[in-house]
Fold:
Amino acid sequence: MSRKVIPVAAAARGLALPPTDGVRAGEPVADTLGRRVRDLRISVTDRCNFRCRYCMPREVFGEDYPFLPHGEILTFEEIVRVARLFRGHGVAKIRLTGGEPLLRRGVEDLVAMLSRELPGADLTLTTNGSALRAKAAALRAAGLHRITVSLDSLDDATFRAMNDADFPVARVLEAIDAAAAEGLAPVKVNMVVKRGVNDHEVVAMAGRFRGTGHILRFIEYMDVGATNGWRMDDVVPSAEIVRRVNEAFACEPVNPNHFGEVAKRWRYKDGQGEFGIISSVTQAFCATCNRARLSTDGMLYTCLFADQGHDLRALLRGGASDEDLASALAAVWRHRGDRYSEIRTAETARARKVEMSYIGG
Ligand code: SF4
Structure:
């Protein structure tokens, strides 16, 4: 029997929209810490076919979990409208997430609409890979530029211990190859590292992907949401991960590709490529955070660890003009001051926060 929880979506339809103070469509906007919005992450579904322990533990997200009804989730047209107006404020990159975005029917049509309406924008998607082999060609043809695949282990038993789903590692590896063959290379591969569960595979994962052209990223286990039972003891600090990799394969740090890049880059000294580290817990990167997040049902969040967002769906379905909507987007960003990872404490780690499966990572 799964534990009854109030769905985050129903609990809070959001914060009051801040005054728009005359910001017009098409103007770049910076928040209270001078960070300009650059990335928009869009959750296209709150559903997933995996139950990763760090994101969607089955005892909470069980069979009777009240996922969002279809009528409440944003249509493709609504998603594209928000993305287009955010592009006017400086957004250069769109990442489609979930839940598992490839579960959303016709997601490749959404990619095609975004590609048409946001020429020049960098279109990316994060997936667990389970449906990627079948979808790679259509996603590429629709205009997707890059793809990130989550893979927490090379061993089926450990993989299952992390994602609580009966899905073979081999099929995710095949999907990565299929995506690369369709031109979505280099593929980024995300590994969430949890002490005592899969950290023994850090070097094996590095060994598997170095020299392939794909970019493995190690992610520190995070206190996202309020359901994954996060403990600091289960975190393997990125410094320790780098030390382990370096002992096996000599590596050195590399400059970021762009301002605000999430992963710290490291390259192998023998020319066998690079890997990344995402250290939200031990090396906070809030100072350069330029990411906005749109939930499946149209809530705008300004931080992965926020507890509430702003209701854009009410504007979208309430007859707001593009000008009104653009001003609202800008006003929310301009009033943003999030820097959760810099102020994380044992108390904040236990506090109520939006679920990652609802707004995407
Ligand atoms: S904790 Fe929030 S503000 Fe800091 S980097 Fe993450 S999303 Fe950005």
Q: What stands out?
A: The chain is about 30% helix and 15% strand. The CA atoms of residues 76 and 110 lie 6 Å apart.
